[in-house]
Design a protein that fits this description.
By secondary structure, this protein is mainly beta. It is built from 6 helices and 38 strands. The strands form 6 sheets. The chain has a 22-stranded antiparallel barrel. A 5-stranded mixed beta sheet has the order 3-8-9-6-7. It is globular and about 80 Å long.
Length: 663
C-alpha cells in the first residue's frame, strides 16, 4: 500500500508540473543565432529566424565528445532512449515514445527507407560530418512519413567549407576496440573531390561485463565515401557520390549444459548508395534543388552449430532460423523556391517519389513485395507583420499499398522585445506502416500473414509552445509539447490461428511533456543544462501500460585556447516509472521505478598549429544503474522486488586514446 501511495503521489506531482508550466519547449543553443540551418527549409536560413524548435551540434562539439558514430552523440542527448537489438542494432526512441517517430537524414536524403526498420545509428560515421541539425517538432510537410517528433539531419563537409588537408585518425579503446579513418580532398575553381574511409573493429567480450551494449559481439565495420561536385554556369552546382557500408559481426552462443555444442550467429550487412543532385539559382530570386538516390541494402543472418572442443562449426540450413534481407530504394525529390528579400511572401513547392522493393522475396502470398509513394508539397513563409515570422505548409501524399492522409503545419515566431520571443507550432503528421507490418516479409519462423486491405498510416496531431529569453551570453527557454496519435497498427497472433499474424489497430495514444534549457557561453566556458519530463500511454490498449520519463542533462566544456587544451564533462540522469496493469477499483496492480546516471569525460590537447591533436578520456566514467529501482508484480506479497531491465545501459567503464594528424 505504501508503494501504491508513493506511485500515486509521483503521478500527482507529474500532473502538477504539467499544469504549472503550460508553455515549455526545448531551446536552441546559445551563440549560434547566425548559424545557417537547412533542415526543413531546403535553403540556408538563420537559426534565429526559425519558428521550429532547433539546435545544432557543431563539428567541434562532436570532436570534444570523443564520438565516432551518431549513436555515441545521441546516446547522451536529452529525450533519447536506446534499445539494443541483437540483429538490427541500436533502435532509437525520442521523448520516451515508441520507435519510428523520428526521421534520420543524410544531407537531406533519407537514411534507409522509411518502409524498413533498419536504422542502426552506430553505422553512421562522423568523420565527414560538418554538423548535426536537430529539429524537435514535426517536419512531416517537408519530409513526409515518420518525421513526427523530430528530424536529425547530418550535414557532410561540402564545397562551401574550407578544404581540409589530408588527415589520419587513430582511436583505441580498452577493452579491445580500434577505429581508424583517412580523409583527403581537393578543391579547384570549379571542382571539388573528397574521399573518406574508416575501419571500426571490436574484438568482443564474453558476457555483459562492460560498456553500454546488452551484448558485446565481435564486429568489423568498414565505411567508404566518395564525393564529387562541379560548378556549372555561375550559381549552379551538380554533385554525385557513392557510399558503402560493410559490417560483419558474430553473436557468440552459450554452450548447452552437459554438452560440447553451442550456436553462433553471424550477421553480414552490405549497404551501397549512389546519389546525385543539382542545386543553385535559376534567376536572382528563384532557386532549384533536385536529388536522386539509389540504395541497395543486404543483410544475411546465418546460424552455425559449433563444437566447443574442436572449435569447428557448420552452417545450420534451416530457413526458420536463418534470415536474409535484400531490398532496394529509389528516391527522388525536386524543389523550386522563391526567395525575394523585397517581398513579404515567399514559398517553395516540390514533389518527391520513392519506390521500395524486396529483392529477396519479390512475392509473398501472391502479394508483390513493393511499395511506391509520391507527394506534392508547398511551404510558405510570411514576414509582412512587424516582429512576426509565419510559416504554413501542406503535403498531399499517395501510396500504392496503404491509405494516406494529407499533412499540414502552421508555425509562428513572434518577438516581443529584442530579448524575448514566442514560438508556436501545430502540425498534423503521419507514420507509415513498415514492410513487416504490410507483408511480414522478415517473419521467417513459419508465420504467414492475413493482409489488411484497409491498412492506413498512423495520424499524429502535435502542439509545441516555447518562450525564449536570450540576452548576451545567456539563454533560457522553457516549453510544452503534446502529441495525439490515432489509428496505429501492430502485428499480433490470430486468436483462431496462433501461427498466423494479423493487424491490430491501436487505440488513441497521447504524449505530453515539458522541457527547459539553460545555456551560457563564453570564451573559456560553455554550459548547457537541459531537463525533460514526459508521460505517455503508448500501449494502453495492450497492457494498460503508462510510462513517465524524466531526464536531466548537463554539458560543461572548459576551453583554454592559449594552451591548446579542452575539457568536456557530460552527465545524464534518467528516470523511468510507470505501471503495467490497471484495475478499475484498486488502481495500479504492478508498477516499476528505474533510475540511472551516466557520464563521460574527455580531454584534448593540440600541438603546434593543430597538425597533431591528442585526445583521451573515459566513456562510462559514471554509469550507475538502478539508483532507486523496484518492481512490484501483479501477484505479490506486498514487498518490493528488484528488477533489472533491458535499458541498454550496463555497468562498466572504458577509456580511449585518440591521435589525429593533419598532413
Amino acid at each position: 500500500m505504501e508503494c501504491n501511495s508513493a506511485f500515486k503521489l509521483s503521478n500527482r506531482f507529474f500532473t502538477f508540473i504539467l499544469v504549472l508550466f503550460p508553455a515549455f519547449v526545448f531551446a536552441q543553443n546559445i551563440g549560434k543565432d547566425n548559424t545557417m540551418f537547412e533542415t526543413g527549409q531546403f535553403k540556408k536560413v538563420k537559426q534565429s529566424e526559425l519558428a521550429d524548435v532547433t539546435r545544432i551540434i557543431t563539428e567541434a562539439e562532436i570532436r570534444l565528445r570523443g564520438a565516432n558514430n551518431l549513436k555515441d552523440i545521441l546516446l547522451m542527448e536529452t529525450g533519447g532512449i536506446f534499445n539494443y537489438d541483437a540483429q538490427k542494432g541500436w533502435q532509437f526512441q525520442w521523448h520516451g515514445s515508441t520507435k519510428g517517430n523520428i526521421l534520420i537524414l543524410m544531407d537531406g536524403l533519407p537514411f534507409r527507407s522509411v518502409q524498413f526498420d533498419e536504422m542502426d545509428l552506430q553505422q553512421i560515421p562522423l568523420d565527414n560530418i560538418s554538423r548535426i541539425e536537430i529539429t524537435e517538432n514535426s517536419q512531416g510537410v517537408s519530409y513526409g512519413s515518420s518525421a513526427i517528433m523530430g528530424v536529425i539531419n547530418i550535414i557532410s563537409k561540402s564545397t562551401q567549407e574550407k578544404v581540409y588537408k589530408p588527415s589520419l585518425r587513430f582511436q583505441g579503446y580498452n577493452p579491445g576496440s580500434f577505429y581508424s579513418n583517412v580523409n583527403l580532398g581537393r578543391r579547384t575553381t570549379e571542382n571539388y573531390f573528397r574521399f573518406s574511409s574508416s575501419v571500426d573493429a571490436f574484438a568482443g567480450r564474453q558476457g555483459n561485463d562492460s560498456g553500454r551494449v546488452l551484448q558485446w559481439v565481435p564486429y568489423t565495420r568498414i565505411n567508404n565515401q566518395l564525393f564529387f561536385s562541379h560548378k556549372i554556369l555561375q550559381y549552379m552546382e551538380v554533385s554525385c557520390g557513392f557510399n558503402n557500408m560493410y559490417e560483419n559481426k558474430t553473436q557468440l552462443g552459450y554452450p548447452y549444459p552437459q554438452t560440447v555444442r553451442a550456436y553462433d550467429r553471424e550477421l553480414k550487412t552490405n549497404n551501397n548508395s549512389v546519389y546525385a543532385g543539382i542545386k543553385g539559382k535559376l534567376t536572382r530570386n528563384y532557386n532549384l534543388q533536385g536529388d536522386v538516390q539509389f540504395m541497395d541494402y543486404r543483410r544475411n543472418n546465418t546460424l552455425f552449430l559449433k563444437d566447443i572442443s574442436t572449435a569447428e562449426q557448420r552452417e545450420v540450413n534451416d530457413t526458420a532460423l536463418n534470415d536474409t534481407i535484400h531490398y532496394t530504394l529509389v528516391f527522388s525529390r525536386w524543389v523550386i523556391s522563391q526567395n525575394d528579400k523585397n517581398k513579404s511572401f515567399n514559398y517553395l513547392a516540390g514533389f518527391d517519389i520513392a519506390s521500395t522493393q524486396d529483392k529477396y522475396r519479390s512475392t509473398v502470398n501472391n502479394v508483390h513485395q513493393s511499395n511506391a509513394t509520391t507527394s506534392l508539397f508547398l511551404i510558405t513563409n510570411y514576414t509582412g507583420i512587424k516582429n512576426l515570422i509565419a510559416y504554413g505548409g501542406f503535403r498531399l501524399p499517395y501510396s500504392s499499398k496503404y491509405k494516406t492522409k494529407p499533412l499540414w503545419d502552421v508555425k509562428f515566431k513572434y518577438k516581443f522585445t529584442p530579448t524575448v520571443s514566442l514560438k508556436f507550432v501545430v502540425a498534423r503528421s503521419t507514420k507509415a506502416p513498415t514492410f513487416d507490418q504490410m507483408f511480414a516479409t522478415y517473419l521467417t519462423n513459419g508465420y504467414s500473414i492475413k493482409r489488411n486491405l484497409n491498412l492506413t498510416d498512423e495520424s499524429v496531431l502535435s502542439y509545441h509552445y516555447s518562450l525564449l529569453y536570450k540576452k548576451d551570453n545567456f539563454t533560457f527557454e522553457p516549453g510544452f509539447f503534446n502529441y495525439f496519435f490515432k489509428n496505429g497498427i501492430e502485428l499480433i497472433s490470430d486468436q483462431n490461428n496462433p501461427g498466423r499474424l494479423v493487424h491490430k489497430n491501436l487505440s488513441e495514444k497521447t504524449t505530453i511533456g515539458t522541457r527547459v534549457n539553460i545555456a551560457y557561453q563564453s570564451k573559456n566556458l560553455d554550459l548547457y543544462l537541459r531537463g525533460i519530463l514526459t508521460g505517455n500511454n503508448h500501449f494502453a490498449n495492450l497492457f494498460d501500460k503508462q510510462l513517465f520519463f524524466t531526464e536531466v542533462y548537463s554539458n560543461i566544456m572548459l576551453k583554454l585556447p592559449k594552451y591548446g587544451f579542452n575539457l568536456c564533462y557530460i552527465g545524464k540522469l534518467t528516470s523511468q516509472r510507470g505501471y503495467m496493469a490497471l484495475d478499475a477499483v484498486t488502481g495500479p496492480q504492478s508498477y516499476f521505478n528505474n533510475r540511472f546516471y551516466l557520464a563521460d569525460a574527455i580531454m584534448e590537447k593540440s600541438f603546434g598549429k593543430n597538425p597533431i591533436l591528442l585526445r583521451g578520456g573515459f566513456k562510462n566514467l559514471f554509469n550507475v544503474k538502478n539508483i532507486e529501482s523496484f518492481f512490484l508484480p501483479t501477484a505479490t506479497s506486498g514487498s518490493e522486488e528488484p528488477q533489472y531491465y533491458s535499458t541498454a545501459l550496463i555497468a562498466g567503464r572504458y577509456f580511449f586514446i585518440e591521435l589525429n594528424i593533419k598532413l
